[in-house]
Amino acid sequence: MEQIKSTPSFAGLPNCSFEEAKVVIVPISYEVTTSYRKGTKEGPIAVLNSSYNLELYDEELDTTPAEIGIYTYPEPILPIGDLKLPLKYIKEIANKIIESKKFPIFLGGEHTITIGILSAYIEKFYSNISVLHLDAHCDLRKEYEGTSYHHACALRIAGEKIPLVQVGIRSLSKEEKEFIKGRENIKIFWNWVIKEKNNWIDDVILSLKDEVYITLDLDVLDPSIMPSVGTPEPGGLDWWDILKLLKRVFGKKKVLGMDIVELSPIPGLVFPDYLVSRLIYKIIGYYKVFQT
Ligand SMILES: [Mn+2]
Asked: In terms of residue numbers, what domain contains 287?
Protein backbone atom coordinates (compact mmCIF):
# COMPACT_ATOMS: atom_id res chain seq x y z
CA MET A 1 0.00 0.00 0.00
CA GLU A 2 2.82 2.34 0.85
CA GLN A 3 4.60 3.87 -2.11
CA ILE A 4 8.20 4.80 -1.74
CA LYS A 5 10.15 7.64 -3.34
CA SER A 6 13.82 8.15 -2.69
CA THR A 7 14.11 10.33 0.42
CA PRO A 8 17.37 11.95 1.60
CA SER A 9 18.39 10.60 5.01
CA PHE A 10 18.57 12.99 7.98
CA ALA A 11 22.04 14.53 8.51
CA GLY A 12 23.33 12.40 5.63
CA LEU A 13 23.62 9.51 8.07
CA PRO A 14 23.65 6.01 6.69
CA ASN A 15 20.03 5.02 7.25
CA CYS A 16 19.94 2.37 9.97
CA SER A 17 17.05 -0.07 9.72
CA PHE A 18 13.65 0.79 11.19
CA GLU A 19 14.13 -2.04 13.70
CA GLU A 20 17.51 -0.74 14.93
CA ALA A 21 16.47 2.92 15.23
CA LYS A 22 15.18 4.56 18.38
CA VAL A 23 14.19 7.77 16.57
CA VAL A 24 12.16 7.86 13.37
CA ILE A 25 11.84 10.97 11.22
CA VAL A 26 8.73 10.88 9.04
CA PRO A 27 8.68 13.46 6.20
CA ILE A 28 5.09 14.24 5.17
CA SER A 29 4.96 16.72 2.29
CA TYR A 30 1.24 17.35 2.64
CA GLU A 31 -0.19 20.63 1.40
CA VAL A 32 -3.79 21.14 0.40
CA THR A 33 -5.37 23.90 2.50
CA THR A 34 -2.57 26.45 2.99
CA SER A 35 -4.31 29.81 3.14
CA TYR A 36 -1.63 32.52 2.88
CA ARG A 37 1.95 31.70 1.70
CA LYS A 38 2.08 28.37 -0.11
CA GLY A 39 5.03 25.97 -0.20
CA THR A 40 4.77 23.71 2.87
CA LYS A 41 4.97 20.66 0.60
CA GLU A 42 8.60 21.63 -0.07
CA GLY A 43 9.38 21.79 3.67
CA PRO A 44 10.42 18.24 4.60
CA ILE A 45 12.88 17.71 1.76
CA ALA A 46 14.39 21.20 2.26
CA VAL A 47 15.02 20.30 5.92
CA LEU A 48 16.51 16.90 5.09
CA ASN A 49 18.76 18.49 2.44
CA SER A 50 19.96 21.20 4.85
CA SER A 51 20.60 18.63 7.59
CA TYR A 52 23.75 17.45 5.75
CA ASN A 53 25.35 20.56 7.21
CA LEU A 54 24.82 19.52 10.86
CA GLU A 55 27.70 19.01 13.27
CA LEU A 56 26.98 15.59 14.81
CA TYR A 57 28.50 16.39 18.22
CA ASP A 58 26.26 18.48 20.53
CA GLU A 59 28.31 20.93 22.59
CA GLU A 60 25.57 21.66 25.15
CA LEU A 61 24.82 18.01 25.93
CA ASP A 62 28.37 16.71 25.37
CA THR A 63 27.04 13.79 23.36
CA THR A 64 26.57 12.65 19.77
CA PRO A 65 22.78 12.33 19.43
CA ALA A 66 23.05 10.44 16.11
CA GLU A 67 24.47 7.42 17.93
CA ILE A 68 20.97 6.63 19.17
CA GLY A 69 20.01 5.38 15.69
CA ILE A 70 17.95 7.63 13.43
CA TYR A 71 15.77 6.21 10.69
CA THR A 72 14.41 8.51 7.99
CA TYR A 73 11.07 7.10 6.91
CA PRO A 74 10.59 6.94 3.12
CA GLU A 75 8.36 9.82 2.18
CA PRO A 76 4.87 8.40 1.64
CA ILE A 77 2.90 9.34 -1.44
CA LEU A 78 -0.45 10.25 0.06
CA PRO A 79 -3.76 9.29 -1.51
CA ILE A 80 -5.65 12.29 -2.90
CA GLY A 81 -9.29 13.05 -3.51
CA ASP A 82 -11.33 12.90 -0.31
CA LEU A 83 -9.52 15.00 2.32
CA LYS A 84 -10.08 12.21 4.87
CA LEU A 85 -7.92 9.73 2.96
CA PRO A 86 -4.44 11.22 3.48
CA LEU A 87 -5.20 11.74 7.19
CA LYS A 88 -6.29 8.13 7.54
CA TYR A 89 -3.05 7.09 5.87
CA ILE A 90 -0.98 9.31 8.19
CA LYS A 91 -2.86 7.81 11.15
CA GLU A 92 -1.79 4.32 10.00
CA ILE A 93 1.86 5.40 9.93
CA ALA A 94 1.48 6.93 13.43
CA ASN A 95 -0.10 3.69 14.68
CA LYS A 96 2.80 1.65 13.31
CA ILE A 97 5.30 3.88 15.12
CA ILE A 98 3.29 3.89 18.38
CA GLU A 99 3.29 0.07 18.28
CA SER A 100 7.06 0.03 17.73
CA LYS A 101 7.62 2.27 20.80
CA LYS A 102 10.10 4.36 18.84
CA PHE A 103 10.25 8.14 19.12
CA PRO A 104 8.74 9.77 16.00
CA ILE A 105 9.33 13.26 14.66
CA PHE A 106 6.75 13.88 11.94
CA LEU A 107 7.93 16.59 9.60
CA GLY A 108 5.30 18.57 7.67
CA GLY A 109 3.86 19.80 5.48
CA GLU A 110 0.89 21.76 6.70
CA HIS A 111 -0.48 21.46 10.22
CA THR A 112 -3.45 19.40 9.03
CA ILE A 113 -1.23 16.27 9.29
CA THR A 114 -1.51 16.59 13.08
CA ILE A 115 -5.21 15.65 12.86
CA GLY A 116 -4.24 12.21 11.49
CA ILE A 117 -1.41 11.77 13.98
CA LEU A 118 -3.43 12.90 17.00
CA SER A 119 -6.33 10.63 16.17
CA ALA A 120 -3.90 7.70 16.52
CA TYR A 121 -2.50 9.02 19.83
CA ILE A 122 -5.94 9.83 21.27
CA GLU A 123 -7.28 6.40 20.32
CA LYS A 124 -4.32 4.73 22.03
CA PHE A 125 -3.86 6.94 25.11
CA TYR A 126 -7.24 8.72 25.52
CA SER A 127 -7.00 11.58 27.99
CA ASN A 128 -4.00 10.09 29.79
CA ILE A 129 -1.76 12.35 27.70
CA SER A 130 -1.44 16.09 27.30
CA VAL A 131 -0.88 17.74 23.97
CA LEU A 132 1.66 20.54 24.10
CA HIS A 133 0.93 22.84 21.18
CA LEU A 134 3.49 25.49 20.22
CA ASP A 135 2.01 27.92 17.71
CA ALA A 136 1.17 31.55 17.01
CA HIS A 137 -2.42 30.40 16.32
CA CYS A 138 -4.93 28.38 18.34
CA ASP A 139 -5.99 26.23 15.36
CA LEU A 140 -9.22 25.39 17.21
CA ARG A 141 -11.72 26.25 14.48
CA LYS A 142 -14.48 23.72 13.91
CA GLU A 143 -14.38 24.36 10.17
CA TYR A 144 -12.52 26.64 7.80
CA GLU A 145 -13.04 27.21 4.08
CA GLY A 146 -15.76 24.56 4.17
CA THR A 147 -13.80 21.69 5.76
CA SER A 148 -12.68 20.54 9.18
CA TYR A 149 -9.64 18.83 7.59
CA HIS A 150 -7.83 22.15 7.52
CA HIS A 151 -4.68 23.52 9.16
CA ALA A 152 -6.81 26.11 10.98
CA CYS A 153 -8.66 23.21 12.67
CA ALA A 154 -5.60 21.07 13.47
CA LEU A 155 -6.02 21.09 17.26
CA ARG A 156 -9.81 20.98 17.51
CA ILE A 157 -9.69 17.18 17.89
CA ALA A 158 -7.47 17.64 20.96
CA GLY A 159 -9.39 20.66 22.28
CA GLU A 160 -12.63 18.69 22.33
CA LYS A 161 -11.24 15.65 24.08
CA ILE A 162 -7.96 15.88 25.94
CA PRO A 163 -5.74 18.16 28.02
CA LEU A 164 -4.29 20.77 25.67
CA VAL A 165 -1.58 23.27 26.60
CA GLN A 166 -1.01 25.99 24.01
CA VAL A 167 2.14 28.09 24.08
CA GLY A 168 3.07 31.21 22.11
CA ILE A 169 -0.45 32.04 20.95
CA ARG A 170 -0.95 35.56 19.58
CA SER A 171 -3.78 35.21 17.07
CA LEU A 172 -7.23 33.64 17.25
CA SER A 173 -10.79 34.16 16.08
CA LYS A 174 -13.73 35.21 18.24
CA GLU A 175 -15.28 31.79 17.59
CA GLU A 176 -12.15 30.09 18.99
CA LYS A 177 -12.21 32.35 22.04
CA GLU A 178 -15.83 31.28 22.65
CA PHE A 179 -14.88 27.62 22.27
CA ILE A 180 -12.07 27.94 24.81
CA LYS A 181 -14.19 29.78 27.38
CA GLY A 182 -15.06 27.48 30.28
CA ARG A 183 -13.08 24.51 28.95
CA GLU A 184 -10.88 23.29 31.75
CA ASN A 185 -8.91 20.97 29.45
CA ILE A 186 -7.42 23.92 27.55
CA LYS A 187 -4.69 26.12 29.02
CA ILE A 188 -3.19 28.95 26.98
CA PHE A 189 0.16 30.66 27.48
CA TRP A 190 -0.32 33.85 25.49
CA ASN A 191 2.88 35.11 23.96
CA TRP A 192 2.55 38.57 25.57
CA VAL A 193 2.41 36.89 28.99
CA ILE A 194 5.46 34.71 28.21
CA LYS A 195 7.42 37.83 27.27
CA GLU A 196 6.73 39.39 30.69
CA LYS A 197 7.03 36.40 33.00
CA ASN A 198 10.31 34.79 34.01
CA ASN A 199 8.99 31.47 35.28
CA TRP A 200 6.52 30.71 32.49
CA ILE A 201 8.27 27.41 31.71
CA ASP A 202 7.64 26.17 35.28
CA ASP A 203 3.95 26.94 34.75
CA VAL A 204 3.90 25.03 31.44
CA ILE A 205 5.48 22.00 33.12
CA LEU A 206 2.90 22.14 35.94
CA SER A 207 0.08 22.24 33.40
CA LEU A 208 1.15 19.05 31.60
CA LYS A 209 0.36 15.45 32.44
CA ASP A 210 3.26 13.00 32.77
CA GLU A 211 2.95 11.84 29.17
CA VAL A 212 3.04 14.41 26.41
CA TYR A 213 2.69 14.66 22.65
CA ILE A 214 4.20 17.85 21.21
CA THR A 215 3.02 19.61 18.06
CA LEU A 216 5.20 22.49 16.95
CA ASP A 217 4.08 24.96 14.30
CA LEU A 218 7.19 26.88 13.29
CA ASP A 219 5.26 30.16 13.26
CA VAL A 220 5.47 30.07 17.07
CA LEU A 221 8.98 31.43 16.45
CA ASP A 222 9.55 35.09 15.72
CA PRO A 223 9.49 35.81 11.96
CA SER A 224 12.90 37.47 12.34
CA ILE A 225 14.41 34.00 12.77
CA MET A 226 11.65 32.00 11.05
CA PRO A 227 10.22 33.92 8.09
CA SER A 228 9.62 30.71 6.08
CA VAL A 229 6.14 29.86 7.31
CA GLY A 230 2.69 29.88 5.74
CA THR A 231 1.19 32.42 8.15
CA PRO A 232 3.87 34.53 9.89
CA GLU A 233 2.89 36.55 13.00
CA PRO A 234 5.11 39.18 14.63
CA GLY A 235 6.30 38.84 18.22
CA GLY A 236 7.18 35.16 18.63
CA LEU A 237 9.55 33.00 20.66
CA ASP A 238 13.27 33.18 20.05
CA TRP A 239 15.70 30.27 19.58
CA TRP A 240 16.71 30.07 23.23
CA ASP A 241 13.11 30.32 24.51
CA ILE A 242 12.10 27.27 22.52
CA LEU A 243 15.20 25.24 23.39
CA LYS A 244 14.80 26.02 27.12
CA LEU A 245 11.17 24.97 27.01
CA LEU A 246 11.81 21.74 25.09
CA LYS A 247 14.77 20.80 27.27
CA ARG A 248 12.65 21.16 30.39
CA VAL A 249 9.76 19.19 28.92
CA PHE A 250 12.06 16.35 27.87
CA GLY A 251 13.73 16.50 31.29
CA LYS A 252 10.49 16.34 33.29
CA LYS A 253 7.92 14.45 31.17
CA LYS A 254 7.73 11.36 29.03
CA VAL A 255 7.47 12.63 25.47
CA LEU A 256 5.69 10.11 23.25
CA GLY A 257 6.27 11.82 19.95
CA MET A 258 6.14 15.12 18.15
CA ASP A 259 5.57 16.89 14.89
CA ILE A 260 7.18 19.98 13.40
CA VAL A 261 5.07 21.61 10.72
CA GLU A 262 4.49 24.55 8.39
CA LEU A 263 7.97 25.19 7.02
CA SER A 264 7.44 26.87 3.68
CA PRO A 265 10.94 27.40 2.29
CA ILE A 266 11.84 30.73 0.68
CA PRO A 267 14.03 30.07 -2.39
CA GLY A 268 17.60 31.23 -1.76
CA LEU A 269 17.08 31.70 2.01
CA VAL A 270 18.66 28.59 3.49
CA PHE A 271 18.95 29.60 7.16
CA PRO A 272 15.33 28.84 8.25
CA ASP A 273 15.53 25.36 6.67
CA TYR A 274 18.75 24.72 8.55
CA LEU A 275 17.20 26.08 11.79
CA VAL A 276 14.63 23.28 11.57
CA SER A 277 17.39 20.67 11.06
CA ARG A 278 19.20 22.00 14.09
CA LEU A 279 15.99 22.04 16.13
CA ILE A 280 15.29 18.41 15.23
CA TYR A 281 18.81 17.42 16.15
CA LYS A 282 18.60 19.29 19.51
CA ILE A 283 15.36 17.42 20.20
CA ILE A 284 17.00 14.08 19.39
CA GLY A 285 19.76 15.07 21.81
CA TYR A 286 17.26 15.86 24.58
CA TYR A 287 15.52 12.57 23.87
CA LYS A 288 18.80 10.63 24.06
CA VAL A 289 19.94 12.29 27.29
CA PHE A 290 16.64 12.43 29.19
CA GLN A 291 14.40 9.67 27.84
CA THR A 292 16.63 6.67 27.16
MN1 LIG B 1 0.28 28.61 13.17
From this structure: 10-291
**Cα-Cα end-to-end distance for the chain:** 33
Q: 231 CA to middle of ligand 1, Å?
A: 6
- d(CA 250, ligand 1 centre) in Å: 22
Cα(255) to centroid(ligand 1), Å: 21
Q: What phi, psi does 243 have (nearest 5°)?
A: -65, -40
Tell me the backbone φ, ψ of residue 285, rounded to 5 degrees: -65, -45
**Ion ligand 1 — residues with CB under 5 Å?**
135-137, 217, 219
Q: Could you check whether the bond before residue 43 is cis, i.e. omega within 30 degrees of 0?
A: no
Query: What's the 192 CA to ligand 1 centre distance in angstroms?
Result: 16
The pTM score is 0.96
Domain count across the chain: 1
CA 136 to ligand 1 center in whole angstroms: 5
What CATH number does the domain containing 261 carry?
3.40.800.10
pLDDT in tens, the chain (292 residues): 455 558 999 999 998 899 999 999 999 999 988 677 789 999 999 999 999 999 999 999 999 999 999 999 999 999 888 889 999 999 999 999 999 999 999 999 999 999 999 999 999 998 899 999 999 999 999 999 889 999 999 999 999 989 999 999 999 999 999 999 989 999 999 999 999 999 999 999 999 999 999 999 999 999 999 999 989 999 999 999 999 999 999 999 999 999 999 999 999 999 999 999 999 999 999 999 999 9
